Amino acid sequence: MREKILTDPLDFSTIDLHGDFYLGEYPWHPSLEGADSWSSPSAGWYALSVATRPTVTSYTCERSGYDYSVDKTVSVQIPAPWLADIMGLRMTNGRVPVYVDELGCEIFYDPSVREAGPAAALIDRDAFLQLLEREELSAAWIIAGEKSAYGGRDPGMGFGGRMLHTAIYRLSSDGFERHFHSDLELPSKDQLVEFYGEEASNSDAKRI
Asked: Which of 84, 106, 69 lies closest to 32 in space, CA to CA?
């Protein structure tokens, strides 16, 4: 994946859960069967050439309808069903979504359920590294985005260029490894004409 621009979230399989079951029924509820299957590699320059699988999911339960069990919308990060199953994780109690292993050791939790701040997925480092080695897996964090310039009299027609970037972080026993890749999309002469609203000079094109 090192030479890929991975700005399309549809390239990755994700799991979004919206209160179709009680949190205590996770991850064994029948509706979750196959929810976290592997994504298949696909063709194309920007497509992924390897199969991927999400490690976490977001569980959301909204305060609406006739469900009065919550007095405000709840959204927390929880382990993906396959991860919870293979690590033998279960909720420690019915009050907070903190997950422990068979020995009762705290392995996974979202800090936002205990203190103010954004939602996040925190997992025991040693237990996670052991899982990766045992299952012959590799964990990757991907941060991607773009900076684009648009303008002109007709919205969407004037294009001044685009910079796309992707950073891939891999975790090993020695820490994180980072690989950064970027790509530049240059505008055509016609796009520059529309972007500036007048005939673009050669110097304008070179500067872009």
From this structure: 84
Per the structure block, which two tokens stand in for 72? 């405000």
pTM, to two decimals: 0.74
Tokens of 98: 């903190």
What kind and span of H or E run contains 128?
helix 125-135
Residues present in the chain in total: 208
Residues 95 and 101 sit within 8 Å (Cβ to Cβ): no
Contact between 60 and 18 (Cβ < 8 Å): yes
Q: What is the pLDDT of residue 200?
A: 47
Query: How is the chain split into domains, by residue range?
Result: 9-137, 142-207
**CB contact set of 197 (below 8 Å; sequence gap of 6+):** 151, 152, 153, 158
Per the CB < 8 A criterion, the answer to whether 38 and 52 are in contact is: yes
